[in-house]
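Tokens for chain A. Residues wanted.
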């Protein structure tokens, strides 16, 4: 009976999210400095390398990046990288992941690479097929990295990696270890559990990236101002589509709390207050057209109900929408 429920649960997850985050491959690897001869690697997926112990330098696209104990480095698809140990020994966990609109990834056992102990893996033959690559769409993380590095604003340059350290690294490490432990089990609904754990990992990553992104903005005040102006334009352009403050914050990859403070500091008004102003100003233009019902005006400018429209309009204009229409029509006669 329980086995019959699993496909239903998986289908529900897929329909709710559109794509499912998936770990395609995972390795526990113990490196020794004396025998470390890491060759250049390049992969078609995001690769997260979590340093359990030790210190290492990563050479990513020619740049040397130090990564310390209990920190992680995310290497983007297609970026060449080499690991060089700084300590005598390094214990690492490597996860290769992305987002897929298929549930066809199955866990299989493979022969561990020399010098490493493999706790779980996916079918290499399956992963190497062009058909499979076409079904993988790691857009969520990619879009953040592109935005944070300026590509959304027409600037050049893609950082081929991202470091996660500080207070967020413990949560990342916990999620990684949880995936490793689950894959080592022979338990009921193992694959579904790993899908959930991968979602947990991606949420932890998203939180860590946002925290570091917002922290960097506190130093780069000009960048924070630029993001506020981008979000302001987003609100103006989408005010009639039921857009929310949360939508605007997400558009520039900020938490709602940080976004609200930055918006008020920059423009002297809250994002919600600004959105209400834009909607009411648009409504004033529509109310001058007698053939449009007041309830229709409310919907056309993005209010969910005439009641909410009336409250917001009266607060800004000092009269109801009907009174405003009557005043405008009387002046035009």
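Reply:
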């Amino acid at each position: 009976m329980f086995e019959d429920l699993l496909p239903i649960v998986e289908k529900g997850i897929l329909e709710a999210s559109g794509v499912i985050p998936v770990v395609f491959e995972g390795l526990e690897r113990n490196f020794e400095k004396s025998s470390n001869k890491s060759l250049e690697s390049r992969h078609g997926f995001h690769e997260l390398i979590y340093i359990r112990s030790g210190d290492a330098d990563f050479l990513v696209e020619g740049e040397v990046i130090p990564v310390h104990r209990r920190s992680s480095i995310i290497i983007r698809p297609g970026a060449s990288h080499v690991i060089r140990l700084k300590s005598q020994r390094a214990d690492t966990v490597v996860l290769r992941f992305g987002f897929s609109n298929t549930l066809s990834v199955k866990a299989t056992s493979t022969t561990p690479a020399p010098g490493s102990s493999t706790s779980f893996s996916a079918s290499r033959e399956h992963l190497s097929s062009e058909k499979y690559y076409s079904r993988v769409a790691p857009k969520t993380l990619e879009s953040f990295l592109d935005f944070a590095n300026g590509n959304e604003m027409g600037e050049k340059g893609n950082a081929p990696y991202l470091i996660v350290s500080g207070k967020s690294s413990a949560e990342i490490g916990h999620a990684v270890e949880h995936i490793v432990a689950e894959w080592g089990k022979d338990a009921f609904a193992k694959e579904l559990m790993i899908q959930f754990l991968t979602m947990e990992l991606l949420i932890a990553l998203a939180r860590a990236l946002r925290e570091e992104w917002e922290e960097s903005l506190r130093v780069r005040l000009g960048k924070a101002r630029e993001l506020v102006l981008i979000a302001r334009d987003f609100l103006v352009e989408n005010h009639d589509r039921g857009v929310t403050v949360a939508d605007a914050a997400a558009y520039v990859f900020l938490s709602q709390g940080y976004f609200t403070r930055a918006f008020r500091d920059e423009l002297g008004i809250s994002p919600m207050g600004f959105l209400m102003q834009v909607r009411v100003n648009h409504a004033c233009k529509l109310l001058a057209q007698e053939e449009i019902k007041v309830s229709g005006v409310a919907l056309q400018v993005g209010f969910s109900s005439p009641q909410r429209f009336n409250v917001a309009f009266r607060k800004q204009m000092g009269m109801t929408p009907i009174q405003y229409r009557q005043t405008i029509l009387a002046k035009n006669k």
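The chain has two domains: 2-218, 221-333. The beta strands are 20-32, 46-53, 56-60, 63-67, 72-75, 81-85, 89-100, 116-120, 161-164.
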